[in-house]
Amino acid sequence: MTADDVRRAVTRIAHEVLERNHGLDGVALVGMQTGGVPLARRLAAELERIEGTAVGVGTLDATFYRDDIGLRPLVPEAVTDISFDLSGLTVVLVDDVLFTGRTVRAALNALNDYGRPRAVQLAVLVDRGHRELPIRPDYVGKNLPTARHELVDVSDAGVDLGTATAPGGAGTPAFGEEAGSGPRREDRAQ
């Protein structure tokens, strides 16, 4: 996907969110750290451009809610910042790449610490398949079949498919990240 493809996908997802929810009343976005945060902000800006109404945006790090704690080293990605009560809202959980579904499952558990949403919807830029849990996105920018060992790198320049690198290896930076940061979490490849 090129940068223009990503822009069009974000615009399409914004229209789908508006259609499904009949506007933005009672809707909030929560970006999953790290790749989903800039995407959630971009989606919020597009929703505001289309609808003329701002939507609340929060950020969520679900590292300590994962089901593989103790199986691999886990390091918190970034700060969770949800400055509003989620109770009664429709929360659109946003991430850049959906892979096994385990990070989304962790995020669903983490959201409960911030209230009981009326509903949770999932928006992803790329669905690469290989699900290990029964999780399916409500909004998808692109279905991108991959091999399990391949990486999907999302950046301002678009979406690139590559092979796994050694830990600490350089990759394409995500939206708003510095070059050389590499893959941000295990959802990118196994």
SSE blueprint:
Layout: H1 3-21, E1 27-32, H2 36-51, E2 56-60, E3 90-98, H3 102-111, E4 119-127, E5 139-143, E6 150-155, E7 158-163
Parallel strand pairs: 1-2, 1-3, 3-4, 4-5
Antiparallel strand pairs: 6-7
Helix pairs in contact: 1-2
Summarize the structure.
This protein is α/β, with parallel strands linked by helices. The protein contains three helices and seven strands, in the order αβαββαββββ.
Model description:
This protein is of the alpha/beta class. It has a single domain, classed as Rossmann fold. The chain is built from three helices and seven strands; from the N terminus they run H-E-H-E-E-H-E-E-E-E. The chain has helices at residues 3-21, 36-51, 102-111; strands at residues 27-32, 56-60, 90-98, 119-127, 139-143, 150-155, 158-163. Helix 1 crosses helix 2 (36-51). The radius of gyration is 16 Å and the shape is globular. 39% of the residues are buried.
Overall tally of structural domains: 1
Q: Count the E strands.
A: 7
Class in CATH?
Alpha Beta
CATH architecture: 3-Layer(aba) Sandwich
CATH topology: Rossmann fold
Apparent shape:
globular
